[in-house]
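Table 4 source record.
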Amino acid sequence: MEIKVNPGDYIKLKLSKFREIEGTVLESYDKSIVLFKLKSGYNIGISKDNILGYRVVRKFKEKVEDFRIPSGKGKPSIGLVVSGGTIASKLDAKTGGVKPLTDIKEFARFYPKLFEIVNVKKIDVPFMIASESMTSKHWIEIAKSVEKMLNDNDIKGVIVTHGTDSLHYTSAALSFFLRDLNKPVVLTYSQRSIDRASSDAELNLQCAAQFALSDCAEVVLVGHASINDDFCYALLGSKVRKLHSSRRDAFKPVNVKPIAKVWPDKGKVEFLSERRPRNKEKVKLDARFNEKVALVKFYPGQDAEILDFYKKKCRGIVIEVFGLGHVMTEDKGKKWIAKIKKLVKDGFVVCAASQTIYGRLNPKVYSAGRELEEAGVIFLEDMLAETAFVKLGYVMAKTKDKNKIRELMLTNLAGEFNELLSG
């Protein structure tokens, strides 16, 4: 049957005598298919041959609203850095995908509750980019924006909105780049865009605002504690990882407890572990990164010649090793030991982080680990591999001295590893 609808129209389709579905029409490159977004937020396509009838409920009309950002008078002030990602996106009624919010008025219109809690004194949009496309240059841009806000006496804390895919890399970078932290730096996100009924954006932002006003001077990530819309966790920026591709509680603390539970209600923050308290220090920006570093996962049978490639491209490497700290050492593995010894002798930095994620390395338990340690590998305790990669780039931008690099990599700069308790 002929169906005369336009992208953005809200329609009802009759598929049988007893079944009717409704949704928003999307652009379709196949004229035989009606593509549209269901009320649940999911997109489906239906062959026109299966449609018995239809009704246009509402024609699409681009909304042009004169929206004013709510007054911040009498509210505590924060800074806001918007960098892109799903949390800073809206539904594109024509394609069914999302597109960036164009300005802060749009941001305020979609997230009015944030502006009810705080006065957003300063807003910076250094770029709008999907987080999978970020590089160290973007981390540095964010750090510069945050540092200026933190050293503004009127601003109580800073929120950074960000895409989820590489968020834990950015949180690690800010943990190292911002020295002598004085106020909360809160990174937050959404797994699902604001147009979806199951969006996590609103709760995450409200909780981020509450934590930005708290007595804590740490870089943290704030997001859903579970799949429910009840409260969030604040997680240390150097000890957090995305551990699920789509759940709203995708980020989890690794080898540590959450810093706090955070509710959207005014002042409701319950601290669960030690933190650096709010203070009057002046934050120092130390945003530097040597891009001649790499992160490589070791796998069974991996050819040691891969190290020759990295030697040409880099000056340092973090290897995700097995278990307590192993790569193969027998037969072909002897080449690994020989290559690593040669690399270290030539001034190349080789670090090890565990690919098990949880637990810590201990090279002294088995001979394989002891051989690597003797070859000059720096074992990074229970540091996350992604954090180790960021830290190595940061440290190697500070010094070329091998001994100093080793010392700094094994110095706790931002809570990136737990101290090994004796006894």
